[in-house]
Specification:
Length: about 50
């Protein structure tokens, strides 16, 4: 299973199991995932990785 790098609402960056991240109309690209840092359900969005 592919992993996706995401950022939670508190700013924590971690990887999550891949799931459809496409924009779903009014819902936007965010999804609810349990953050491993704060152990709460948080809205997460995919992180765009920059090449150096």
């Amino acid at each position: 299973m592919e992993r996706t790098v995401v950022r939670c609402a508190d700013g924590h960056v971690f990887s999550a199991a891949s799931f459809p991240m496409q924009q779903a109309g009014r819902l936007g690209p965010g999804r609810l995932v349990r953050c491993p840092r704060c152990a709460r359900l948080r809205s997460v969005v995919p992180v765009t990785l920059q090449k150096r």
